[in-house]
Specification:
Shape: globular
Helix content: 10-25%
Low-confidence stretches: 6-12, 58-62, 454-458, 484-495
CATH class of the largest domain: Alpha Beta
Largest sheet: 9 strands, mixed
Number of helices: 11
């Protein structure tokens, strides 16, 4: 028959699906917008995986034999695993005291922020044994050639460090090089850096490198190998324009530690922040300074952030904050100006804009300030990003100071959370904040009212005199009392 086709003429159609590159959701057809996460133009066509697993491990053929699962108690003979310390104190602090053998770290940040530079310095310190013990380290680059990595090492002054280099993007080749003897001086490397995970590919998948399936499968192979062999794995990840690590969200769940490297291009400071850490505290930060010889650690960031502060300047307040377990003092600057447009402008750098809108609303509704019809500019000096609610009172102090043209005392720090009714609420770790302020020479602190102050105890902690506030109106009254002229009364047209 003319219309009949033989089996040889029938070509099996390749099955494909469209996968979102932000959330990993699969769709049967292309669409401009992902229904799962709402991202636009994020769907990429990928081949559907068929047949056996895409793992590089050899399958034994036939049915797999089941093993009986053995349960144990919470108490056992497990000993504390020694950490591998780089000798770079700020990096070790963010990792929770050093890297744990068999762990996987994910380091993300904007292009050119210094991720590769810092990791190369850390590997050189580990290989040279700056902490007292040398480790065998390997740096595998998927973006640069060996000559480019050597040029960076020469610029950083670590070209003599015994770090093993390789340039490859094939997971099969990398796994074959790492999957041999146990890590150690006579075996394989003990710390491995992959720069970056978005350039790696698995030849068992038909999709291009950097897609969701490739990133997920490549990371799964490398993490499984690190757990089996016991070496530390550091993955460098690209970030999207929203500031999150590119690829599937499951990548952050697969690793043990997620570190974000952040900082403003106009500032020399770089901040590494731990947003997830199974072996240490989260929200811990390490502060570095970009120099011509690489990144230099900053042991006392509070003194550095306040180094250029000027006294008797209106619209400025020193905030005593906490970043993980570290107290950090930083200056918050505010500017209140008449608006030239129908809608007042709000510009915020280093803080949450929604939080600023709340503080402005409380100042207007609970304290009677006429501030909402003006342009508001808020900046956290030094390029640090603050997320804790304890900065509410310092922001309010900077705003009222800018509005009344009355400066805050130069020897005063401020911290406290503001409620919608105007009450000033206590915050955690007040002792550590005051201790850091006393170390830097501050003598007064504006803080929330303590419960112990009602019992008649002296308002003096760590040598710092406390001015405790129960309501935001008391903060406004501080500036009204210090105003020498009626023209500086809060909310007046002359202000």
């Amino acid at each position: 028959m003319r219309g009949a086709k033989s089996n040889r003429d029938i070509v099996a159609k390749r099955e494909t699906q469209f996968v979102c590159q932000q959330c990993g959701a699969a769709h049967s057809k292309w669409a401009g917008r992902c229904d799962a996460c709402g991202g636009w133009n994020t769907l990429v066509e990928e081949a559907v995986a068929t047949g056996p697993s895409n793992s590089l491990a050899k399958s034994g053929g036939g049915k797999s034999k089941s093993r009986r699962l053995e349960f144990t108690g919470l108490q056992g003979d497990s000993r504390e695993i020694p950490r591998r310390i780089t000798g770079i104190a700020e990096f070790d602090r963010v990792c929770g005291g050093g890297m744990v053998p068999g762990s996987a770290l994910l380091v993300g940040g904007d292009p050119g922020i210094g991720k590769s530079t810092l990791l190369l310095q850390a590997l050189a310190a580990l290989a040279q044994g700056k902490s007292g013990q040398a480790f065998r380290c390997a740096y595998i680059s998927g973006e640069e050639s060996l000559d480019q990595v050597r040029l960076r090492a020469a610029r950083l002054g670590v070209e003599r460090a015994p770090v093993e280099l390789a340039a490859s993007t094939s997971i099969r080749d990398i796994a074959a090089a790492l999957d041999h003897a146990a890590p150690g001086p006579g075996g394989g490397p003990e710390i491995v850096v992959i720069d970056s995970i978005q350039t790696m590919y698995l030849d068992t998948l038909d999709s291009a490198p950097g897609t969701v399936s490739q990133v997920r499968a490549s990371a799964q192979e490398l993490i499984g190998l690190a757990k089996a062999r016991g070496f530390c794995l550091v993955l460098v990840g690209h970030v999207t324009k929203e500031g999150v690590i590119a690829g599937p969200r499951v990548l952050e769940h697969m690793v043990d530690t997620v570190l974000y490297f952040e900082g403003e291009r106009g500032h020399q400071f770089r901040i590494m922040r731990a947003v997830k850490n199974r072996y240490g505290p989260t929200d811990e930060i390490g502060v570095f300074e970009m120099t011509d010889r690489g990144l230099a650690e900053v042991p006392n960031p509070s003194a550095l952030f306040l180094a250029d502060r000027r006294n008797q300047v209106t619209g400025a307040a020193v905030f005593a904050g906490m970043e993980g377990t570290r107290p950090v003092l930083v200056e918050i600057q505010a500017l209140v100006a008449p608006t030239s447009y129908g809608t007042p402008r709000r510009a915020v750098v280093g803080w949450d804009g929604n939080r600023l809108a709340m503080v402005l609303a409380v100042l207007e509704a609970r304290c009677g300030l006429q501030i909402g019809a003006r342009d508001i500019y808020l900046n956290v000096a030094g390029g640090l990003r603050i997320s804790e609610p304890a900065a509410d009172l310092a922001v309010a102090a900077a705003l009222v100071s800018a509005l009344t043209l009355e400066p805050m005392p130069a020897d005063t720090v401020v911290f406290g959370e503001i409620g919608l009714s105007g009450e000033v609420r206590p915050v955690g770790q007040a002792e550590a904040r005051l201790k850091e302020a006393a170390k830097l020479g501050f003598s007064t602190a504006v803080t929330p009212a303590r419960r112990t102050s009602r019992q008649g105890k002296a308002a003096d902690v760590n040598g710092i005199a406390l001015r405790e506030l129960a309501h935001l109106r008391q903060l406004v009254a501080m500036f009204e009392d210090s105003a020498p002229r009626p023209a500086r009364v809060v909310g007046s047209a002359a202000s």
